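A quick aside before the break. I want you to see a complete sequence-to-structure record at least once, exactly as it would be stored in a machine-readable document. Don't worry about memorizing anything.
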Amino acid sequence: MRLALAAVLAGCSAENATNATALLDAATKLRAEAAALETQARAEAVAPTPAPTTHAPTPWSARPFRTRREDNRTTCSTTVDQCRAAYPGLLRRIDWDLAPWRTKGITQNATQRRYDEAVGNGDQLAISVRGGRAHVQRWGRGYKSRTVTAQNMITRSLEVVCGVPAVSKFVYTTSDHAPPPDSKQAGMAPLGIWCRRADDPYSIAAPEGSFLVNGDNGNTPMKVNATAHALEMARHAPPWNNRADKLWFRGQIWRGGGNDARRAVAGFLRGNHPDGNPWAEVLDIAEGGVGAHDQCTHKYLLYLHGSACSGRLKNLLRCGSLVVFPQSAGGMYNAPDKKGRGYGQGIVYEEFFYHRLVLENETVVRPDQLVNLLPFVKILRRYDDAARRIGEAARARALYELSVEAAMCYWAVLLAEVGELQRRGGFAF
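That is the input. The structure line, written in tokens, reads:
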């Protein structure tokens, strides 16, 4: 028994000795690691903090697309194909405008020539697309900040609509003075413009930025969603039978150039009429500021161009009133003669939606000469029900095809078509 107990005690002593050796080794290792950490901490406390490095700004053309601020995509909710299915009549205009480039496509040389002409122009911007995102280059704010609103409109359009292929340097001008269609334009890529000359085969119509939000006048911000403003006009429109049966005009008439038609109409009321002014019975003119509540109070609304297109037309078409759009409607190059008859140089302006919403006797009525407005309104009064039906037809189509969604789809499909023609012309994206 004593021998057995001695053996047990001997085993315990050996095991304890082994455990003690392991613990001693672990403690030595921990002390070494602690010493190393202490040495590192002392070194970091003594060493000076390096100065931050300031990098030179990367040129726009060299920046990776993912770093540009236009890349704040959320989740797109519509595809290009869905846009085509939703607005086939409206989008048909794109095929017509791009017809001159269908055979050979849009070449790199033609694109570069158009781009070189645009560089430095505050009214123009260049649009590229990569990975379905719009990347916009501009050289200023443009007149009334139109290039800013256009940039917002285009960027937002491609945030909402998916499937737009790569595009390179498509130039869009926010000026309402389209370049003349001369030989200088023949070798260039198409120019996007919101107010296009009907005789210009080198420009293609595209929606202006105010469909989404207006810019400002250069001094005081006037951030107004033009579409929402037009819808507010329509909401406050009185029933047809409660509207005044006069021809109503609201627009600036003091400017020169293309406002000759507006001055002529104002002269009808202001002129000397010894036997009484017959125009006072049929014509109302509001020269001052008029709110949204007062825009749709008449059965007949007169639309006249300013220097070129006026943004008012898309608003008036939503009223449900009958829009009267004379053939001699003004414009810098389309001013009537001093007697208010006929055309000046015969150049007609149009926006992207005219083929759908400026249809004679279907969505608008179009007397030929300004002096014909007096008997024309008297005739309209005899056909009150027909006038109401035309106004309602225009309103129904305008609410759908002049919506923000329609304008965004138009931009997405237009850029998709331009990208396809650029690949046909030799671009390798």
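Two observations worth writing down. The chain has two domains: 65-208+408-424, 227-350+354-401. The CA atoms of residues 402 and 420 lie 26 Å apart. We'll return to this after the break.
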